[in-house]
TrEMBL record:
Residues 1-22 form the signal peptide. It comes from Amylocarpus encephaloides. This is Glycosyl hydrolase catalytic core-domain-containing protein. Residues 66-297 form the Asl1-like glycosyl hydrolase catalytic domain. One of its GO terms (molecular function) is hydrolase activity. One of its GO terms (biological process) is fungal-type cell wall polysaccharide metabolic process. InterPro entries: ASL1, Asl1_glyco_hydro_catalytic, GH. It comes from the Eukaryota.
Length: 303
C-alpha cells in the first residue's frame, strides 16, 4: 500500500501536469455570427406557452429606458416593450418583457442579431419581431422587397422557431390592399410565421377614425389566415400631421382599447409612443411620468 505521503506527492504531480497542459491550450478565437442558425440552441421544451389572457399593451421606446420606468403601478395594463433593436437595454424595467426586433437586412442589424436574440430569449423573451415597415422607403423604414424579405427571414428568423414565437415583417396601412404582406407570405415557403405585426396611423381622431382602425385590422386578418395580429404602432391624430387634441386622442383610445382587448386575434398592441419631444401624442411626459393620454392608455384613468 502507498503511504499517505506518497499519495499526496502523486496527486500534486498530476495537478501540476494538468496545469502545464492547460497552459499549452491556444486561446479560442473570437467568433462572429452573421447567420442565426450558427448560434441558436433550441430549448428542450420548445416554444414558451402562449398565455392569451395576459395584458396586451406595450411601450415602444428609444434608448435609454428612462421614458418607460413609470408604468408598473397597481392596475397597469402594460407588460411588454420594444425599441426597434435587438439588444436588451440596460435598466430594462422588470415588469416589462423586452421583445427584440431585427429592424432590417443591413449588416449593421444582422451582424449581432443571433447573439442578441439568443440573449433576450435566455432572459425571458418569448417573441421576436422582424423588419420595420419594409413596404415603405422613407426615413425610418427598412425598404425591402417581399421576396428579399422572405429570404432574409428564412436565414435570420426561422432558426429560432423552436424557441420563440416569430413575427412577420411589420407593414403599414399605406398599402391599402396588403399587397406587400401577401407577397411576403407567399414567398416565405416553409416559414413558421406565427403572428403578423402591423402599423396603423391616421391624421385625425374624429368620429370615423375608430371604425377606420377596425376595418383595417379586420381586412388584414382576412389575408393572414389563423395567425394573430400585433399592432406594434398605432396613433390617431398625431401622424403624419397633428389634427387632434389630447382629449380627442383619449376619446379615441376609450373606444379602441376595449375593442382590441376583446378581439381574440389581436395578441398585443403599442401606442406610438413614449417620447416627450413627440407632439403627436406621447404617453410619457418630460418628468418621466405618464401624460393624461398615458394614464388612459396604461391604467384606464382619465386625469
Amino acid at each position: 500500500m502507498f503511504s499517505p505521503h506518497t499519495v499526496i506527492i502523486f496527486l500534486l504531480s498530476l495537478l501540476g501536469l494538468t496545469i502545464a497542459l492547460a497552459g499549452l491550450q491556444p486561446t479560442p478565437p473570437e467568433l462572429t455570427f452573421s447567420n442565426a442558425s450558427e448560434i441558436f440552441s433550441p430549448l428542450p421544451q420548445g416554444k414558451p406557452p402562449y398565455h392569451p389572457r395576459q395584458h396586451k399593451r406595450g411601450l415602444p421606446f428609444n434608448n435609454p429606458t428612462q421614458w418607460i420606468q413609470s408604468y408598473s403601478g397597481p392596475g397597469s395594463e402594460v407588460n411588454w416593450a420594444y425599441n426597434w433593436d435587438s439588444a436588451v437595454p440596460d435598466n430594462m424595467p422588470r415588469n416589462l418583457q423586452f421583445v427584440p426586433m431585427l429592424w432590417g437586412g443591413q449588416p449593421g442589424h444582422t451582424i449581432n442579431w443571433a447573439r442578441n436574440a439568443q440573449n433576450a430569449i435566455n432572459r425571458g423573451a418569448s417573441h421576436l419581431l422582424a423588419f420595420n415597415e419594409p413596404d415603405q422607403c422613407g426615413p425610418g423604414q427598412s425598404c425591402i422587397g417581399p421576396v428579399q424579405a422572405a429570404a432574409l427571414w428564412k436565414r435570420y428568423m426561422e432558426p429560432f422557431t423552436n424557441q420563440a414565437w416569430l413575427g412577420a415583417p411589420a407593414t403599414t396601412n399605406a398599402d391599402p390592399d396588403h399587397k406587400w404582406l401577401k407577397q411576403f407570405l407567399a414567398a416565405c415557403t416553409g416559414c413558421h410565421v406565427d403572428f403578423v405585426p402591423i402599423h396603423w396611423y391616421n391624421s385625425y381622431a374624429d368620429a370615423n377614425t375608430f371604425q377606420y382602425l377596425v376595418n383595417w385590422i379586420q381586412g388584414v386578418k382576412r389575408d393572414i389566415g389563423p395567425r394573430n395580429i400585433w399592432v406594434t404602432e398605432f396613433n390617431a391624430g398625431g401622424i403624419p400631421e397633428i389634427h387632434a387634441s389630447e382629449d380627442q386622442q383619449i376619446s379615441f383610445l376609450r373606444k379602441a382599447l376595449p375593442w382590441m382587448d376583446n378581439t381574440d386575434y389581436i395578441e398585443r398592441y403599442a401606442w406610438f409612443w413614449t417620447d416627450p419631444s413627440f407632439r403627436g401624442g406621447s404617453i410619457t411626459a418630460g418628468n418621466r411620468q405618464p401624460t393624461k393620454l398615458g394614464y388612459q392608455y396604461a391604467y384606464g384613468i382619465h386625469r
